Amino acid sequence: MSDVALREGPLSGTRIAVLMESDFYEPEIFYYRHRFAEEGARVDFLTRLWGQSELTFTGHEYRAPFTVDRGLDRITDTGLREYAALIVPSGMVADRLRYTDDVERLAPATELLRRAFADPGVVKGIICHGMWLASAIPEVVRGRKVVCHNNLLGDVRNMGAEYVDQDVVVDGDLVTGRTGAHHHLFARTLIDLLSRRNTQRKEA
Description:
By secondary structure, the protein is α/β, with parallel strands linked by helices. The chain has one domain (15-203): 3-Layer(aba) Sandwich (Rossmann fold). It contains six helices and eleven strands. The protein has helices at residues 26-38, 77-80, 93-97, 108-117, 153-158, 183-203, and strands at 15-19, 42-47, 55-58, 65-68, 70-71, 85-88, 123-127, 145-146, 162-163, 168-171, 174-177. Strand 10 and strand 11 form a beta hairpin. Helix 1 runs parallel beside helix 6 (183-203). It is globular and about 45 Å long. The protein starts with 14 loop residues before the first strand and ends with a helix. 41% of the residues are buried.
């Protein structure tokens, strides 16, 4: 459920990955699906498929269904570099995706996020409760400026991040947003950042 009509724009040829699970915030997810397409970007929704060909999740507010058929645990480093940005959305998505059946290993979604942080070419977008997904890899945000939902303030400080009281915060290749209700501001910031990166590549 990722293909929509793309408009020619500053993000033409760009791919953006959004992690998904149940209890997602519908206004945010459906906004991303169409707003990035307006700028020319293709949006892929990724999840842990648990051996299935696809899974249908339900939203938190309206129980809206959303089917995902792309598995995050099969993405190689080369495949990851095809994405200009990886977004960890709000709601309970991060909490569900950080589950690991082997406590000695990172959850597949957390491992994917760790690899994304190792590549500055991939912009990391984390909003609201999305920072939960990074809780097992605090080193990736240690010393970095972030904002999150007020409920996670203690978490991000314990992770060593520097909390900034703004709706959206940019720290290099990391963009963070305060709550799911700020998804439009968060998306606007990502669009501007990715557009600048595209212009710089073309001029290089």
